Amino acid sequence: MAGLAAAALPLTGAGGLAMPDSLLSALIGQELGSVVFVRDYLQLDFDGPRLTLFVWPQVSVDSTVHSMGDPGYRDTLCALIGHTVLTTAESPDAGLVVGFGRGSVTLKPEPSHLEGLEIAMLGGFTDREDWMVWRPDEYPFDAPKRPLHLYPARSPAFPDQR
């Protein structure tokens, strides 16, 4: 993979304003050590740093894109083991992207795929103590696409509530 430059793609927010560098870019140069499937979420372990994805990502290897449920999805994710992160991106258009020389993992959930309060979490670096959590309605997932849930003013469970 000589000749490929590793870099974090620039981050931009609303109106094209530059966003501060994301912790995601700290994955550049890290080798994917394992892929862990845990019931309803996924962990990408970089022999220390761990990216936990609470929404199933799309994965591409050798120009073939797979989504959860597709035949070969898990095999495609595991094919990235042993490969080094060359690029990262975080934007409303791209979502979260971790790029390897052979493919990429992209997290850009549809509103129907959002089930919890968190989309992804990154931490576990030995050279830094910070960690990062990505949530719905926060950058880069802040485009309002989910239906608005309205709750009644009075709850049957609490009839005295006013």
Q: How would you characterize this protein structure?
A:
This protein is mainly β. The protein has 1 helix and 11 strands; from the N terminus they run E-E-E-E-E-E-H-E-E-E-E-E. It has a 6-stranded mixed sheet. A 5-stranded antiparallel sheet has the order 2-3-4-10-11, with no helix packed on it. Strand 8 (95-100) and strand 9 (103-107) form a beta hairpin. The radius of gyration is 18 Å and the shape is globular. The protein starts with 6 loop residues before the first strand and ends in a 28-residue tail after the last strand. The relative contact order is 0.18.
* Count of the separate structural domains: 1
Strand order of the largest sheet: 1-7-8-9-5-6
The best one-word shape is globular
Low-confidence stretches: 1-20, 145-156
Determine Rg (CA atoms, Å): 18 Å
Q: Helical stretch count?
A: 1
Task: Provide the structure class.
Answer: mainly beta
Q: What is the string of helix and strand elements? A: EEEEEEHEEEEE
Helical content band: under 10%
How many beta-strand segments? Answer: 11
Mean of residue pLDDT values? 81
Instruction: Kindly report how far apart the N and C termini lie.
Output: 65 Å
How can the largest sheet be summarized? 6 strands, mixed
Strand content: 25-35%
Q: How is the secondary structure organized here?
A:
Elements lengths: L6 E2 L25 E5 L2 E5 L4 E4 L4 E4 L2 E3 L6 H6 L6 E7 L3 E6 L2 E5 L12 E4 L8 E3 L28
Parallel strand pairs: 1-7
Antiparallel strand pairs: 2-3, 3-4, 4-10, 5-6, 5-9, 7-8, 8-9, 10-11
